[in-house]
Description:
By secondary structure, the protein is an alpha+beta fold. 16% of the residues lie in helices and 43% in strands. It contains two helices and twelve strands. A hairpin with a 5-residue loop joins β11 and β12 (181-191). The chain is globular. The termini are far apart.
Amino acid sequence: MKPVIAFALLLFSCTNVKKENTTETNAPATTESIATEKKPIETKKIGEEPLVADTGQTWFKVSVTKNDSAYIKYEGTWPVLLTTEGFATMAFTAEKGALVISHGVTFYMYGWPYAIGRIPIMAKASKNGEASMIMVPVENNAYGLSISPDTGFVEITKNENNGKVVSGFFEAHATNEKKDNFQFKGQFLNVRPH
Length: 194
């Protein structure tokens, strides 16, 4: 009789496990609704990036968004500043070297050297105290169509020896022929003329 009782207990315990499993699978699936709920992806805006402290080194950073999405971002230690009487060209390229195809931002500034303060970026600058800007992106390993902002500013935060060492930052906005919106932000520290 003992084997019959053991078999009955085994059969009874298996039936209980099966019932417990059934109740677990019939319970409401709360984790499934959480897993299927999608949250929008939060993109960090360029404007949230703090300015870098001046350590005395020459440095620059350029960040560009296209239709509120990250587009181009680079930094380096090779800015170019060329000056003549009352005019300056300042350029920041993603790669160092004259014969390298790379993203680039160039400013044409009238009335150089600027005092500390804000200079407006105009689509067609031509007067003292105005600047124009052009961005040349790289697409498919070649230069793409240039982008020229219609609004924005360059702010000079440091000007030593009448334009011999300048620091500052910039912000600009452009819309191209395809109605794409571009936001430009950047910073430059201790740029010296060549």
